[in-house]
Amino acid sequence: GINAEYMGQTRHIFETMNASGYSIDTIMACGGGVKNPMWIQEHANATQCNVILTEQPEAVLLGAAMLGAVAGGAYPDVETAMRGMSREGSRVLPLECTRTFYDQKYRVFQELYADHRKYSEMMKVP
Predict the structure, then answer these.
(1) 86 Cβ partners below 8 Å, 6+ apart?
(2) E strand or H helix at 91
(3) Crossing angle of helices 37-47 and 99-122, rounded to 10°
(4) End-to-end CA distance of the chain
(5) pLDDT higher than threshold 60 for residue 1
(6) Which among 13, 93, 15 is positioned nearest to 50, based on CA atoms?
(7) How large is the average pLDDT for residues 22-50?
(8) More confident of the two residues 88 and 126
(9) What is the pLDDT of residues 53-81, one digit of tens each?
(10) How far apart are CA 126 and CA 108, in angstroms?
(11) How far apart are CA 123 and CA 73, in angstroms?
């Protein structure tokens, strides 16, 4: 479904970036999705990345507070406010027992992506 495609795209982006010299192995997550432990675990499993949740789940409120703290002079800039006001919460690790399953799903995604590119090329108007 849509979620499987999204996770395939995410893994594809990470693998492409890692092949270009990056080393992505961790996802920082915040927002409404972090309230669903199953959704977070599946992202860790599908991407084979650790997922770190922020201590403060209400990222929009915390971001607004950070901007207010900078505007009020409590911090000199947003980066310093982020370091001072946000903290790592829990960490979700990928389950090794799901690796083979998600590797197979990713191979299916790669085939679908290759087909999509081929069909898009066929549909181009000369």
Answers:
(1) 54, 55, 56, 62, 66
(2) strand 88-92
(3) 80
(4) 32
(5) no
(6) 93
(7) 91
(8) 88
(9) 988 878 889 999 999 999 999 999 999 99
(10) 31
(11) 56
